[in-house]
């Protein structure tokens, strides 16, 4: 598949954009006219730069609102078009994009539009330019791709074809299977965009909220399937208008963009295998990625800190046992059931306790890591001794290290053998192996910087096959927190990505959105009792909360008393019940313990505002 | 008018919110239940705190989705309601808000809904609670206020009435004049919200984009007029769900909120005077503000800097003359025509040149300042000698000082007499008074922090009667810039407020959105020629821009050459032409010179991306 991207997707100057696209590995680019007009570099210089970097210049988009107009307007449009065709000759770009008229058209007549477009096509032919005519979703008279194609067919010129844009087709819910009826040689260009489903006017939706494939809700592998079946074999180009991508580092955005196409190429291949069988042949070559199964569970979580005492104490209070120090590295291991927490003091100067790494159980770590690297994930360099387990790791967009670990049937992890309990046990080393109430990690909750949120979603979706669940917004004293759960189908991995509000003026903002690990247990009240006996500092839950709980659920008095005594939170739905509590925050991390009863599948979302407010109250108090 | 505000409008804890409301001068507050549930303070403590601060607790909003349900659900709802009525007795709140059912209603039957609400009313009566029933714009069966009132009428209980919310009425374009048909004693409560007109689903619009009155597009003075005519005299309460207000300093937001009600009160008074005449009497008392005419022009602009040489040089190159130093302050004055620039070195250590103050010509500065202060603007403390002009100034939300200056018929300013040219003229003091091509300030363009944008709009609207024009979005290499022009009807004042993208990762972001002053002139080419002769560093305009200009406008070659030689930009519309150029940026400020030909009324918006890109290119180069 030939990959391309429009310069409008990225921030920076045209030169910076071109460099970023080349570094990310695109085959070509579309020049968005605005980017050229504001550039001090001449068309010839741009052509030379792209050439040096091995990028083809696939498309130019210099004007709109051409057809369906009065004769004097048409004449002005042709004048302008000719100037642009000359410019395209300087740039060496052979295809021009022409969108259906949204503004100046006054005559709703396909024959007339086609006749006017014929004049444009004949003019373009003099400059060896092909015209790709595209229906905008909000075109005045022409807003669906089949209508645009009918007009292109009427134009009937070899250098006049159509451009298909997934946004303009899928946003309006046009049936994309009609693509297969268009002759392949008449599909001059394809633009791809994903978008979250939103109910707003389609123009604003398109101009601000497009995202890269895999980051939104459109069925793009199916869309691509229609193109492949139609016999299309040209560039597949990203044209993403997104307020955030426009203002973030262009190099990162270009990598995110490239990842989306690599992933979509694989998804398209899988979709075609499903629908057409393996023998189906088509002109477009679709590269695939190493196939991996879903990860089955968290292998470990790693907390990094200069001073580890407070984290050790929390783990001890939660019933974790000290499994020892690593033979060669300044790293401790604490375990309970299949929950493993690594505490890492390596290169942690001045670092408050923070989640630094997550280990995922996978079938084959080397294959999984190779897949991630092909998806442009950055490998984490690791040193290991000859007799140690070689661990595979890549860096997530927020710099969390993602380890791909070998899953074992009995739930153990081979690398734990490198830890020796004898050497220098910390104060609270005495675990309680007779009462391993905590069994595993239920979920992990990471704060994401707002500018890398979409990138993070695609990263976890493409490298670890985590599927996005519906996102929610949770009120906190510092603003709304957007929460996006991603998980495997069997719930072995549940990962929540949170985007916190900026709250620039609140001095406590930075520390108010710590990450956390939630452990699953079989008996939450027993875990809480033990923790209280060991002096755990529970996050306090206000009395007003329990009064409301009673009004909502009519809990029996004894349960309500128990919940309140241990600062436990409660939720219930048709499928079951959820009990949980939070520890105090240490640095940038805290822990949660949860008990799922029956088929409860959520995360106690109604209780999250209570947690956020309690954490805010605490951070205010510590500040005073 | 009794003023009130819902705690959901503000950030922080319930206690912080209550303090902020009291400090801003509200009469009462609505407690949003979530704020109470997450608070560690008991209902009694909240009641006591409000009491101490002199705030009434006007409304509680503990549940939704009551009526139109099956009997067993109704029974659970009554159980929950009774718990909440008990809680309201502890809080000392007498009115509960009940929104029409959006989620659980399954029976579309007004008689049944009324019968179920009767049972709720009778239960509430036992706790002396009144119920204010409000139609939500997205209510399942009841979504307009007249329907809700018909049901309230059927309920027919003295403690059952209606609540009217401007958002739910105006967002759906219901005719608000129906309000006048509702008996005054049955309007239990009024909630006010403004909002920008947006075409998106009404729920998202309501939950994220409400703003304070005067910051959106709703005709709220007219809305209030209907309420006053209906005889309503209860609290007028703000219930604003806004993503930005939720995350900004609650004290500022509360002041912004209070300003909106003070302004709306005046606007309502003026509206009723217009429609009913001065003799009209009604129960609601409406306070007014000192009446002022529109400001007629910019009296001066002030640039503050530690090192003033570069600004002086720019002014000299633009043809300004040095009018001297202030008698007692480290301040210089440069003038040309009626354009006056004050350069201030006072307390400017380490300060890059920045726009620090704007002077506005007003009829009566003392009255205008008093009005601004009544609108909660912060006065700027000023020291002046006995024989000096006493200048009135208040602080705008971005800390720019707004001076209210006496306008004189001949365009001079009395305070300029305090400047004496004799003492220590700087290097470039030789102005060119024979060629005062620049006549006045055309417009000023200020960058606004995103979190204070709505506040700034209301500030200029209420204190200086500037009217918002349609806002635009301009692409820059660091993201979209939102631009909002505000002006007086006669264009004497044109002020553009710009919200820049955050571009946190771009090292040049901070300096890429300087403010600027645009001077009007009678002959731009002559100004440019003189400036070039004096060595002005023009902001360079790329050749690609001129090629496009030619394609768009077919300019004659000579004009095009002249434009390109002097780095001039050009725009044209049906009403006239616009020529302009920009200087290099010095610190956080640059200058523009514009020539309006014919009736051109814009700002060369198509050229702004060219300017932003050129400034970005420069800042990148300076960085390298």
UniProtKB/TrEMBL annotation, chains A, B:
Domain of life: Bacteria
Annotated Mg(2+) binding sites: 443, 516, 592
E.C. no: 4.2.1.118
Keywords for the protein's UniProt record, in alphabetical order: Carbohydrate metabolism, Dioxygenase, Lyase, Metal-binding, Oxidoreductase, Pyruvate
GO MF term (any one): metal ion binding
Domain annotation VOC: ranges: 440-584
Enzyme class: lyase
Signal peptide: none
One Pfam family named in its UniProt record: AP_endonuc_2
GO biological process: 3,4-dihydroxybenzoate biosynthetic process
Catalytic activity: 3-dehydroshikimate = 3,4-dihydroxybenzoate + H2O
PROSITE patterns: VOC (PS51819)
Residues annotated to bind a divalent metal cation: 134, 165, 191, 239
UniProt-listed InterPro entries: DSD, Glyas_Bleomycin-R_OHBP_Dase, IolE/XylAMocC-like, VOC_core, Xyl_isomerase-like_sf, Xyl_isomerase-like_TIM-brl
Main function: Catalyzes the conversion of 3-dehydroshikimate to protocatechuate (3,4-dihydroxybenzoate), a common intermediate of quinate and shikimate degradation pathways.
Homology family: Belongs to the bacterial two-domain DSD family.
HAMAP family membership: DSD
Protein name: 3-dehydroshikimate dehydratase
Native organism: Arthrobacter crystallopoietes BAB-32
């Amino acid at each position: 598949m030939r990959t391309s991207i429009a310069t409008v997707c990225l921030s920076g100057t045209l030169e910076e954009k071109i460099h970023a696209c080349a570094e990310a590995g695109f085959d070509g680019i579309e020049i968005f006219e605005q980017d050229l007009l504001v550039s001090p570099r001449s068309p010839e210089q741009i052509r030379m730069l792209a050439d040096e970097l091995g990028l083809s210049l696939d498309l130019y988009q210099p004007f709109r609102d051409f057809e369906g107009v009065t004769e004097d307007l048409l004449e002005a449009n042709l004048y302008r078009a000719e100037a642009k065709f000359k410019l395209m000759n300087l740039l060496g770009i052979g295809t021009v994009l022409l969108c259906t008229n949204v503004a100046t058209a006054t005559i709703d007549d396909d024959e007339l539009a086609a006749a006017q477009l014929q004049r444009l096509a004949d003019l373009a032919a003099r400059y060896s330019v092909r015209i790709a005519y595209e229906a905008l979703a909000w075109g005045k008279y022409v807003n669906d791709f089949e209508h645009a194609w009918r007009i292109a067919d009427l134009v009937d010129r070899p250098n006049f074809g159509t451009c298909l844009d997934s946004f303009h087709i899928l946003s309006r819910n046009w049936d994309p299977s009609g693509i297969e009826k268009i002759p392949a040689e008449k599909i001059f260009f394809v633009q791809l965009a994903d978008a979250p489903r939103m109910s707003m006017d389609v123009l604003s939706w398109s101009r601000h909220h497009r995202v890269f494939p895999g980051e939104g809700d459109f069925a793009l592998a199916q869309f691509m399937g229609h193109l492949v079946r139609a016999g299309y074999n040209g560039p597949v180009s990203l044209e993403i208008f997104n307020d955030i991508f426009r203002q973030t580092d262009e190099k990162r955005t270009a990598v995110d963009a490239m990842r989306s196409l690599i992933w979509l190429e694989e998804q398209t291949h899988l979709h075609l295998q499903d629908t057409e069988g393996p023998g189906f042949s088509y002109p477009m070559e679709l590269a695939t990625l190493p196939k991996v199964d879903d990860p089955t569970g968290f292998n470990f979580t790693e907390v990094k800190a200069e001073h580890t005492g407070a984290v050790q104490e929390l783990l001890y209070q939660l019933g974790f046992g000290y499994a020892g120090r690593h033979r060669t590295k300044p790293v401790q291991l604490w375990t309970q059931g299949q929950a493993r927490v690594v505490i890492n003091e390596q290169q942690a100067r001045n670092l408050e306790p923070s989640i630094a790494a997550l280990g995922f159980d996978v079938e084959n770590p080397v294959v999984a890591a190779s897949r991630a690297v092909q998806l442009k994930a950055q490998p984490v360099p690791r040193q290991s001794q000859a007799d140690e387990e070689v661990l595979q790791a890549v860096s997530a967009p927020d710099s969390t290290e993602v380890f791909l670990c070998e899953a074992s049937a009995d739930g153990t992890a081979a690398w734990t053998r490198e830890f020796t309990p004898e050497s220098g046990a910390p104060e609270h080393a005495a675990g309680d192996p007779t009462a391993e109430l905590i069994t595993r990690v239920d979920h992990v909750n990471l704060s994401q910087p707002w500018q890398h949120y979409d990138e993070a979603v695609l990263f976890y979706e493409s490298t670890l096959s985590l599927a996005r669940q519906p996102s929610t917004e949770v009120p906190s004293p510092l603003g709304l927190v957007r929460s996006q759960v991603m998980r495997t189908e069997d719930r072995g991995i549940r990962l929540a990505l949170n985007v916190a509000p900026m709250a620039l003026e609140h001095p406590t903002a930075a520390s108010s959105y710590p990450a956390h690990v939630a452990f699953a247990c079989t008996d939450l009240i027993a875990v809480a009792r033990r923790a209280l006996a060991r002096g755990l500092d529970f996050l306090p839950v206000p009395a007003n909360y329990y009064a409301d709980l009673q009004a909502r659920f009519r809990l029996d008095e004894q349960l309500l008393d128990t919940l309140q005594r241990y600062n436990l939170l409660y939720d219930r739905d048709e499928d079951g019940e959820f009990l949980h509590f939070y520890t105090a925050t240490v640095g940038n991390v805290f822990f949660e313990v949860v008990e799922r009863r029956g088929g409860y599948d959520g995360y106690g979302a109604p209780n999250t505002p209570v947690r956020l407010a309690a954490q805010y109250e605490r951070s205010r108090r510590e500040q005073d």
